């Protein structure tokens, strides 16, 4: 068996095994790419009339906790002038299963109550991450499917590579007027080639999130041999009886507004301490369309003294001061979803994901057509042998 036949065999069986996974992950990925844009049209409660004075965290927290007795607010996000604030009364523990309360940050009016487990995009995200299977099962299957697809792209390129100049001309264009079998073959080969580089980026960033060993290895490679450092959040010290957390939260909020201007593109997410030794944590994002520029600030919940986190990524340091490995790690999500350079990279990610959803289908038809052709040839040979014996 030649090397190319071995590669073809590997390509075939990886495609048959991972096909359904790739289709689901690709289609859900297409939807997730434009989540922000779709929400801006379908969720009018995200927008409010800009007022003169923002209500501080303590007042938004009080409004929500009075409405929902027995629930403690965990996070508050201020999304910029003219946008509603989002109060999460389940905190960080529930993650995407939390309940978000959209509140007018100028007058305190509750605009929308959204249980995130029922949110359309969270349902799509569950499919993208876990195929709507139990998390313990899905988090094993999906990364494995993505890893297989990664090798499918590489083996596909080897199989696509033209042997001659004449073949090269056919390898870059689709013969739209050809019969279905040839057209399907071109759709698989040519579209796969054009989308390959983008899909390799999407696969790589997905594997960084899906496999710890892959993320550590990729960081080692991009950082010049450095080890990925575990995130360590700073702790508050010397617990003492003092003002309530609400009063301290307002002081921290005032400090944050003093550090950075509250303008249209910015967002502040404020995390209340969950334990006695935890610190106030604030995410500041200067550009809501991306994530990699985000800054994380910590404040001692007793003294309000600024604290510094340790590790790689968002939790410590600024983007401008980060090394190459840390910068690429910060960009991972934005590269994965196509948001890294704005709308045009989103469009490219959408088209590439759409193509990747078709590749298992067109590839299956290529294999099925060859299988039927081989079966017919075998039957014909059998008939010829039988006739020769008559």
From TrEMBL:
Instruction: Note the InterPro entries from the entry.
Output: PepSY-ass_TM (IPR005625)
Does the keyword Magnesium feature in the UniProt annotation?
A: no
Name the Pfam families for this protein: PepSY_TM
Q: What sections of the protein cross the membrane? A: 12-34, 140-161, 191-214, 347-368
| Highest taxon, organism lineage | Bacteria
Keywords on record: Membrane, Transmembrane, Transmembrane helix
By what name is this protein known? Putative iron-regulated membrane protein
This chain's source organism reads: Mucilaginibacter gracilis
């Amino acid at each position: 068996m030649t090397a190319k036949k071995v590669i073809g065999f590997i390509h075939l069986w990886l495609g048959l095994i991972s096909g359904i996974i790739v289709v689901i992950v690709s289609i859900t990925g297409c939807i997730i790419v434009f989540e922000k844009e779709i929400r801006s049209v379908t969720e009018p409660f995200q927008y409010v009339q800009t007022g003169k004075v923002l209500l501080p965290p303590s007042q938004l927290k009080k409004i929500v906790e009075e409405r929902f007795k027995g629930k403690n607010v965990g996070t508050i996000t201020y999304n910029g002038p003219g946008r509603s604030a989002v109060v999460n009364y389940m905190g960080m523990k529930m993650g995407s299963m939390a309940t978000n309360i959209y509140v007018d940050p100028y007058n305190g009016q509750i605009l929308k109550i959204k249980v995130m487990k029922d949110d359309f995009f969270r349902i799509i995200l569950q499919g993208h991450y876990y195929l709507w299977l139990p998390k313990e099962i899905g988090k094993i299957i999906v990364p494995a499917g993505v890893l297989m697809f990664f090798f499918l792209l590489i083996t596909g390129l080897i199989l696509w590579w033209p042997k001659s100049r004449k073949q090269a001309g056919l390898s870059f264009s689709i013969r739209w007027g050809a019969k279905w079998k040839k057209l399907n073959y071109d759709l698989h080969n040519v579209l796969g080639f054009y989308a390959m580089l983008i899909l390799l980026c999407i696969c790589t960033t997905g594997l960084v999130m899906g496999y710890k060993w892959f993320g550590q290895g990729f960081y080692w490679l991009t950082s010049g041999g450095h080890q990925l450092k575990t995130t360590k959040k700073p702790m508050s010290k010397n617990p003492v009886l003092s003002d309530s957390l609400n009063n301290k939260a307002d002081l921290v909020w005032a400090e944050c507004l003093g550090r950075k201007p509250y303008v249209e593109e910015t967002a502040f997410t404020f995390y209340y301490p969950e334990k006695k030794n935890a610190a106030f944590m604030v995410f500041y994002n200067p550009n809501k369309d991306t994530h990699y520029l985000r800054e994380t600030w910590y404040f001692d919940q007793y003294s309000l003294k600024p604290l510094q986190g340790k590790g790689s990524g968002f939790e410590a340091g600024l983007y401008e001061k980060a090394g190459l490995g840390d910068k690429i790690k910060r960009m991972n999500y934005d590269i994965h979803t196509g948001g890294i350079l704005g709308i045009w990279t989103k469009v490219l990610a959408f088209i590439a994901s759409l193509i990747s959803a078709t590749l298992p289908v067109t590839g299956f038809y290529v294999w099925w057509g060859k299988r039927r052709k081989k079966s017919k040839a075998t039957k014909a040979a059998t008939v010829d042998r039988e006739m020769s014996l008559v």
